[in-house]
Structure formats: structure tokens, C-alpha cells
Amino acid sequence: MDSGRGCGDRVVSIILCALETPSAVFMQPSFAQALNQLARPLCVLPGGHAWRFDDEAGPEGRGSSLSVPAILPGDLGNAGFRRDHGLKMAYAAGSMAHGIASESLVEAAARAGCLGFYGAAGQSPEAVDRALARLKGTLGQGSWGCNLLHAPADPATEMAHADAILRHGVARVEASAYLDVTLPLVKYRLAGLRADGQGRPVAACQVIAKVSRVEVARKFLSPAPARLVGELQKSGFINEGQAQLAARLPLADDITAEADSGGHTDNRPALTLFPSIVALRDRMVAEHRYEKSPRVGLAGGIATPQAVAAAFSMGAAYVMAGTIHQACVESGTSEAVRAMLAQAEQADCAMAPAADMFEMGVKVQVLKRGTMFAMRAQKLYDWYRQYEGIGAMPAHERQQLEGQILGKPFDSVWADCESFFSRRDPAQLARAAADARHKMALVFRWYLSQASRWATAGLESRRTDFQVWCGPGMGAFNEWTRGTFLAEPSRRTLYAVSLNLMYGAAVIKRAEIASLCGAGPDLSPRVEPLETREIERRCCPPLGARATA
Fold it and tell me: Residue 79 contacts by C-beta under 8 Å, 6 or more apart in sequence?
């Protein structure tokens, strides 16, 4: 069984072997099989009706035909992105709240040569502190980061998370769900900012911003707002020189264009969102004359080799996946949720009110198959809009609220809210005392927040209330893996998933090039999931073959 042990080292050895080891001549396979041998360049002979491996051709035959180069998983995407973040593949595991993107998931991503982000959102500052201490101990300053979530309803926790991230010296954050730039985000970005020998700004803290709107991307492609920079300078957190450097530095190093995804999403199609973000990036770089251009990656629906290949064909510097990693064994969710995700189809998603931005009407995309959460959450928002407070709610609707949704009396839930906010944010209680609707909103938010925790804990008595963040990509992944070892939830490791996606995309890219060379009548390769050892074998040419001159 694939354990993924030492997988990062194996990927390195695969790449080195492919570059340095000559391959053996073996019985000529079909052209489709030849494309799967990623480390072996192909020669397509004139007319496209014949081909051979480049390492099988004699010196007189080389250069007389069109070539399909070796393309390995580690060749895809932007080399600068891989170099700057210390990666072997331009592949990121996005953060998922409440520790679903767990310490184990982040560690697995690092071992696989990918970039992983811990899911700090929804976690207490104490829990985040413990998680970062573990990751710092196991991974050091390696290729990993932590999520920093915009929390307009709880700015104190956002600042506490930023402080914990800085305290542990985490080199990068994934900034997500931001509607506007906040002080904690700018504080992190400017911490340790310095100038190099030529006076250019060098950021010690890297920001990868996940956005789904052009207007939000513009904020991250701009320098930090002068007002917030001034606040940090006035407090003594940065000096005047750093404040001047901040005006020459975009807020983000990398922008992830997030298309139709699980959790916070605007359901934007990737084919229109990505080019818009790239065009905006180009305009902003020209306007501000940045020394280094922010890169743009793609997320949302990254769940099949075809999706990965399409992202790189559009020019994505990297790809980022999320929901499919929630289905992996290393994720911080329950076996019950992983089983539910394994049954999901593309249409099994719905939008529901978000716990962190409930009053604003912001929604998240969730799984609707096997749970009634989306319908119940929407009912809560409808009541919030309809009634001034719990006292204005008709008796039969309050009975429905307490019996079918909350699972206990309103006043009992409010007691839980009082206990929580007295420690976390007492101002919320003062506001609730003067505003019955706000009090009702806090109780409704209790349900929305608990629903995701019931899911991650696998609380069977609340199964119909499970909130499982999920996009249509989960269904696409299940369709692709059906009938293979990756259809089994217990076999879904991050290494197996990420390597299969990147390997499959490399095969598709080779087929595209071969098609441009005029080769073969049918170059739409069927890329099915393979055991990781088989992919490793196909990425390393056999020993004993002649080296290509």
C-alpha cells in the first residue's frame, strides 16, 4: 500500500535521474504509451505517421524530425514560483478552515514537494499557536505556510492569528476571504522588510492572496494602504525607511485566482476569471513599476489532470487544490465526511450563509448530498432578515428553530454565546444587549460555526447538520477516479493525489505538443490514476539506454 514515505526525496531523485541517466532501448510501445514515458523525448518523423524515442535514434537521425520533449511533473508551471518557495512541483494545497488543512496535511504536502497552508481560520489563537509550533518543529522554515483569514466580525482574532504567525517566524501566509486590506495583513507583510544592495524592497514575509474578484485583486496588487502603513510606523512596528520601501512593494507576491470552489467563492468560471486577473496584474506592474511581477496561479475545480493541464496552458504559475485534499487521509476532518465526499457528484453542491460574514449575506459553497445544512442555514438567514429579534418570531417558527435546527432552546444557545464572547469579544455582548437582532444573529452564527465542527468531529447525532465545504471539483475528481485505487477514501493520500494530477497533466502536455507536430490520429490520452511507484518508474528512463547527443 502506498505510504508516501520519503516521497519528497523520491521526486528529487526522479528529476535528477531523468536529467542525468541514459535510457534503455525497449520494445516499441504504442504512441499513447510512449507519451506516458515522460522522461524520454520523442522524435516525430515527417508527415507525423511514424515516431521513435529520441534516445533510440542514431546521430544521423537526430535533428531531422520534430521533437516532443521530456516533460516531468516538476517542469510544469513557473520555475520562479518553485524556486522562491522551495518546491519540486508548482502545486499548492490551499488552506481549509478549522484545521481541516491540518498539520499532517501540511507536512504531507511538504514531503511531496508541494506548498501547504495550515487552516487557521475558525481556530482559537491557542490552537493556532500549538499547530504552528508543531509545524516549525517538523518542517522548520521549509515550504509551508499558514492561512490568514479576513474576519470583519472578529478583528481581534485576525490580529491574534497574525501575531502568532509572526511569533513563529512563518515565512508565508495564504490571505483569503479578504474584502478589504486590514491592519493585521499589512503588519505581517511589512514585518522584517528591508532593502537589498541596490535599494530594492525585499519582503521577509510572503503573501499569497486568494481572490475571486478583480476589485479585490487590485488591492493586493497595490502597495499597502498609506493609512495602515502610517499606523504601523506611528506605533514603532516599522521605521521610516521601511515605510518608504512599502510604497514600492505590492501587498502580495502571488495571486491565486479562485474560480468555482468549495467554501468562500463567487462561483466565477476559471476561463474568464484567470485572464482578467492576469491582465490586471500586467497593468498594475506597469503602473507601479515593480521590480518583480507578482505571479498568478489558479484554484477552483483543480481536480483532474485535464483541469491542471488547462490551467498551465492558460499560463498559471501554479495550481492550488482544496476540496479534494479534504478527502485525503491526512486532512483534519472525520471519516464520515471523507466517505460523504467520496460519493459526491458535480451537482451535489449548494450555497449557504457563511458563519464569519453572516450579517453581510456572504455565502460559502457546501455539500448538499447527505446533509440538510444548506437549507437550514438559509432558513436562519431568512429569519434574520425578516424579524427584529427572537421575540418577534412566531411561536411555531421558534419551535422549528429550536427543535429542528438548534437542537436545544434559544436561551441555552445564548448562554453558550455569552460564555464564548465574554472571553473573546465582550463588545459583542454589549451590542447584543442593545440590539435584539444582533443577539439573534450571534445565536444563528453559533449554529453555522458548530455545524462545521460537528462535521470534522463526525458527530453522528448531528449528521444532517454537517457543514462540509465542497465545490463541483470534488464530483469531477470522483468521476476521474471511479474504478481505481483512488476511489477508496483510505487510499487518498496527498502525495498520490498531487502526483497523479501533475503526472497526468504532463502526459496531456506531451500529447498537445505531439499533435502540433502532426503526430497520430487520436492524441487525447486517457490518463487514469496510477500507484505512485508506477508514476515514479515512468518519470525515470530505464538504465542502459544511449544518451541523447
Answer: none
Contact 302, 472 (CB under 8 A): no
Cell of 328: 485525503
Rounded to whole angstroms, the Cα distance separating 403 from 398 reads: 8
Tell me what the pLDDT averaged over the chain comes to.
89
CA nearest to 469, candidates 455, 480, 458, 490:
455
- 448 or 41, greater pLDDT: 448
Q: 237: phi > 0 → left, psi -120 to 50 → alpha, else beta; which?
A: alpha
In the block, cell 526522479 appears at: 14
Cell of 207: 503573501
**Model confidence pLDDT, tens digit, residues 318-347:** 999 999 999 999 999 999 999 999 999 999
Separation of alpha carbons 76 and 71, rounded Å: 8
In whole angstroms, what is the distance from residue 359 CA to residue 152 CA? 11
Burial class (CB within 10 angstroms; exposed 0-12, middle 13-18, buried 19+) of 495: buried
Round to whole Å and give the CA distance between 241 and 511: 52
Angle of the 410-424 helix axis to the 426-434 helix axis, nearest 10: 140
Q: Which of 422-426, 441-445, 504-508 has the lowest mean pLDDT?
A: 422-426
Count of CA atoms in the C-beta half-sphere (13 A) of 434: 4
Burial class (CB in 10 A: 0-12, 13-18, 19+), 241: exposed
| Strand arrangement of the beta sheet that strand 66-68 belongs to | 51-53, 42-44, 66-68
- Write the CB contacts of 373 (distance below 8 Å, at least 6 apart in sequence): 352, 366, 451, 464, 465, 466, 467, 468
Phi, psi of 482 (to 5 degrees): -55, 130
In the structure grid, which three cell numbers stand for residue 273, read together? 476569471
Of 526, 533, 543, which is closest to residue 32 (Cα–Cα)? Answer: 526
The mean pLDDT value for 370-376 works out to 97
Cα(385)–Cα(120) distance, integer angstroms: 30
Whether the CB-CB separation of 325 and 96 falls below 8 Å is answered with: yes
